[in-house]
């Protein structure tokens, strides 16, 4: 059994187009339960996220063609930012739980593979698990994902030319904004989503979903791990979540996932942060 909650810190890694501040409600709920937490910004995200030059101008000139300033960012750099945080919190807490959401699962997995002694448990919140297939795009293109996924029309421009997977969170097209909500925040009312979507950044560096992350059973595979499945996720289908769990368990069969499930969409940190925090804490025992 893992140590009491007061000895634990949760390190929270966001997903595509998100940032540390999206964890704020979950962190507040964790604090109410006596648990410490640190949310970090992956490089190129948060307040430091570079924007295309026309992003906030009328008509958004060049949005579909201007190369992203994040085009050269690597998955290794993202993993190193996580490792830096893990090293810091390890100095003060006996138990470190690494939590990743969505595309953040790739850099988080690489960090855990690189320094497994810094992580006592790794939690995937409907997040990419590269154990079975090393690239997130390998799962995103699987029949389990493509058959029912939403949001396929949200992309702006050509990712290969841009060096990023680009969306338009400040779009003035109500249909586009509603599709963004239905894909990622389906159980968040439209009036509340108006606050959430404006905090998203437009560019996800291409490296994050396309760079292979190679794991080994004796390093990553030895870390106790949990998958929180989101039952009504429209961005990462239940079938794809189950596929990643099954393939990871086959890869590291001596240490299978503990699997929990939350109702609702891809963003429980917005829709049900108290339930999410309670599940993270209950998973310690």
UniProtKB/TrEMBL annotation:
Keywords: Hydrolase. One of its GO terms (molecular function) is hydrolase activity. The keyword Hydrolase applies. InterPro entries: AB_hydrolase_1 (IPR000073), AB_hydrolase_fold (IPR029058), Sec-Metab_Biosynth_Hydrolase (IPR052897). Residues 10-278 form the AB hydrolase-1 domain. Pfam families: Abhydrolase_6 (PF12697). This is Alpha/beta fold hydrolase.
């Amino acid at each position: 059994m893992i140590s009491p909650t007061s000895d634990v810190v949760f390190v929270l890694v966001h997903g595509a187009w998100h940032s540390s501040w999206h964890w704020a409600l979950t962190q507040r709920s964790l604090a109410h339960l006596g648990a410490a937490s640190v949310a970090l910004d992956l490089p190129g995200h948060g307040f430091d996220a570079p924007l295309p030059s026309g992003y906030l101008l009328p008509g958004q000139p060049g949005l579909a063609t201007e190369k992203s300033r994040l085009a050269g960012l690597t998955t290794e750099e993202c993993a190193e930012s996580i490792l830096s945080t893990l090293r810091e919190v390890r100095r003060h807490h006996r138990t470190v739980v690494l939590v990743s959401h969505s595309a953040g699962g790739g850099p988080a997995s690489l960090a855990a593979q690189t320094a497994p002694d810094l992580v006592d448990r790794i939690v995937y919140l409907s997040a990419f698990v590269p154990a079975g297939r090393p690239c997130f795009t390998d799962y995103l293109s699987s029949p389990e994902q493509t058959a029912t996924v939403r949001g396929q029309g949200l992309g702006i421009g050509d990712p290969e030319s841009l060096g990023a997977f680009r969306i338009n969170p400040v779009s003035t097209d109500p249909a586009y904004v509603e599709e963004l909500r239905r894909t990622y925040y389906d159980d968040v009312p439209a009036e509340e989503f108006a606050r959430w979507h404006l905090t998203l950044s437009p560019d996800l560096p291409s490296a994050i979903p396309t760079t292979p992350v190679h794991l080994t059973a004796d390093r990553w595979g030895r870390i106790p791990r949990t998958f929180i499945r989101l039952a009504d996720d429209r961005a990462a289908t239940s079938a794809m979540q189950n596929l990643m769990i099954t393939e990871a368990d086959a890869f590291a069969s001596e240490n299978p996932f503990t699997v929990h499930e939350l109702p609702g969409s891809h963003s429980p940190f917005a829709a049900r942060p108290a339930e999410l925090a309670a599940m993270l804490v209950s998973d310690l025992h």
